[in-house]
Design a protein that fits this description.
Elements: H1 2-8, H2 12-20, E1 46-48, E2 61-63, H3 69-81, H4 88-95, H5 99-108, H6 119-127
Antiparallel strand pairs: 1-2
Organism: Motacilla alba
Protein name: NADH dehydrogenase [ubiquinone] 1 alpha subcomplex assembly factor 4
Subunit structure: Binds calmodulin. Interacts with NDUFAF3.
């Protein structure tokens, strides 16, 4: 209780000292260096995507040196189906990419393939009779 009273008690001496305190802060003026050079522009050169009938599924413009997700899947599938036509050099030229990056893309990313099981396997599974639990 004594501590609570001490905390809640106002000290007039400290209040008058607080009223006399005034803090003023100023930021230094911003210095603009003009050496005759312009700052680099953040404007990136963009290219239109090459999507054909899949145009509604993806972005319309991408920066040069990059590809969209749909374009990546398309070029990987084209290379998989026709590797003699869709070579790394042709892909790099077509999509404005570096040859080193295209080679890495073709080496490490492989599109999925869908495979159906033979009908004999389905019959073998369907012919199997489950055991009854008692």
């Amino acid at each position: 209780p004594e501590i609570k009273e001490e905390v809640l008690r106002k000290d007039d001496r400290f209040l008058t000292l607080l009223k006399d305190v005034y803090v003023e802060s100023k930021d230094p003026p911003v210095q603009v260096k003009d050496g005759g050079q312009r700052l680099p522009s953040k404007h990136e050169e963009k290219r239109l995507t090459k999507l054909g009938h899949l145009e509604g599924l993806d972005v319309k413009k991408v920066p040069k040196g990059k590809i969209s997700l749909v374009e990546a899947l398309t070029l990987l599938n084209n290379h998989k189906l026709q590797p003699q036509i869709w070579t790394a050099e042709k892909i790099a030229a077509e999509y404005s990419l570096e040859l080193k990056e295209v080679n890495s893309l073709l080496e490490f990313f492989i599109p999925f393939t869908v495979q159906e099981f033979p009908k004999e396997t389905k019959k073998a599974i369907a012919g199997h009779k489950p055991k009854k639990l008692t």
